[in-house]
Amino acid sequence: MYNGEAIRVVLLEGVSVLALNEFKSQGFDVEYLKVALQGADLIEKIKDAHIIGVRSRTQVTAEVLRACKNLMAVACFCIGTNQVDLDVAAELGICVFNSPFCNTRSVAELIIAMVISLSRKLFDRSSEMHQGVWNKSSSGCYEVRKKTLGIVGYGHIGTQLSVLAEGLGMTVIYHDIRKKMAYSKSQQVPSLEELLAQSDFVTMHVPETPETKMMIRAEHFAQMKKGAYFLNASRGSVVDIPALAEALKSGHLAGAYVDVFPSEPKRNSDGWKVELQGIPNVIMTPHIGGSTEEAQEAIGGDVSEKIVSFINLGHTDGAVNMPNITLPVRGEGVHRIVTIHRNMPGTLSKLDAILSSHNIIQCNLGTQGPIGYVMHQIEAGPSTESLKEEIDQLSQTINCRVLF
Questions:
Q1: Residue 235 catalytic?
Q2: Most buried of 35, 123, 222, 385 (most Cβ within 10 A)?
Q3: Order of strands, edge to edge, in the sheet holding 334-342?
Q4: What is the pLDDT of residue 336?
């Protein structure tokens, strides 16, 4: 395994202390910061790092990646990886890991809370109370029982939300680009238009892809029931915010909750503006869908374990920009060599030729687009340093590591 003292880790944005402790337990040299860094400041801080850990605010651009000559992995302590240039990272042999499932419960619970809050106008009543206004009124306030919740995107968050909503007595329908098994009594509808027309509440739970960019526009709000509510805690790029504001101002929609926005500040800002500000029964939060202590601890443990497995064993299980490759450890007298390479014909045969002086016990190869990842286990023999030097000289090789 790698010498822990040789691995330098820089953790930014106050990621879970659980991750800090995991890396320290491996003997890694860890620097822990609570702030996000950008551009030249980020490069200066991580230029010698082997691992960097970020959340959603730090932008790991192509310029940043190319400036970091020792970088082996980027740990994204969040669901998304939009903040990292994944193609350039793969080109440079840098593995990117995230945690796509650990905060699903936190997001699902938040949506349930917002559904009830919108239906009862709780935030408006609370704001009025803070201003000294006692407005005890039931006008336009409703129970959520027997109302229809339409879920767009029936993945890990959507399915958990489905179960919670049914527990409140709601009817649940969902739309997804693939056929999905329904949880409990929920039903899949064949089109987005049908979901919009039937739902009292529409909530978005889709990833950011070219297909989902601006997928909800003015014509879609017009297809929703008059008096319905719209919620988005997925990605800011999927909704036309000015069109949503118009649908609310016209009275067609009764309220909205938005946690994610097309443009979000890189740091806390008093000057941030959006078209939804000042509209009654509109709840906005600053991208906090997964921001619970439980979710951040779970993400910290999940991502740090993946990084440690990658550094010590070469495993890429959970990497978003590399083939997912693992091999069981075979014990004493075995060397493990991992090679990230350009996906070109004949690469494996060239690698096997270099390793032919050893008995190859196991080999696992995978490719993803232009990148290949191969792991060899060989019986111990002549110096493995000479093998690494030969592999490094191949035109296909991006980088090679001898782990043990």
A1: yes
A2: 123
A3: 360-368, 371-379, 334-342, 397-402
A4: 92
CATH of the domain at 274: 3.40.50.720
Q: What is the mean pLDDT of the chain?
A: 94
Range of the domain at 245: 104-284
pLDDT band at 210 (very low <50, low <70, confident <90, very high): very high
Q: Choosing from 105, 175, 220, 235, which is the catalytic residue?
A: 235
Q: Can you tell me the distance from the alpha carbon of 302 to that of 317, in angstroms, rounded to the nearest whole number?
A: 12
Q: Catalytic residue among 50, 287, 315, 341, which?
A: 287
What is the band of 4 on the pLDDT scale with cuts at 50, 70, 90? low
pLDDT in the model for residue 18 = 94
Q: Are residues 201 and 231 in the same domain?
A: yes
164 and 241 within one domain? yes
Same domain, 68 and 117: no
pLDDT(3) > 70: no
Do the strands 171-175 and 8-11 form a parallel or antiparallel pair, or are they unpaired?
unpaired
Last residue of a domain, one of 322, 342, 370: 322
Strand boundaries in 19-153, DSSP class E: 29-32, 51-54, 73-76, 95-97, 148-152
CA distance 87 to 31: 27
Does the pLDDT value for residue 47 go beyond 70?
Answer: yes
| 132 and 92 co-located in one domain | no
Active site residue 315: no
287 as an active site residue: the answer is yes
What CATH code is carried by the domain that includes residue 366?
3.30.70.260
Given a contact cutoff of 8 angstroms between Cβ atoms, the answer to whether 170 and 148 are in contact is yes
Confidence (pTM):
0.85
- Which residue of the set 246, 264, 275, 297 is catalytic? 264
Domain count, the chain: 3
| 333, pLDDT greater than 90 | no
The helix/strand/coil state of 109 is helix
Are 330 and 199 within one domain? Answer: no
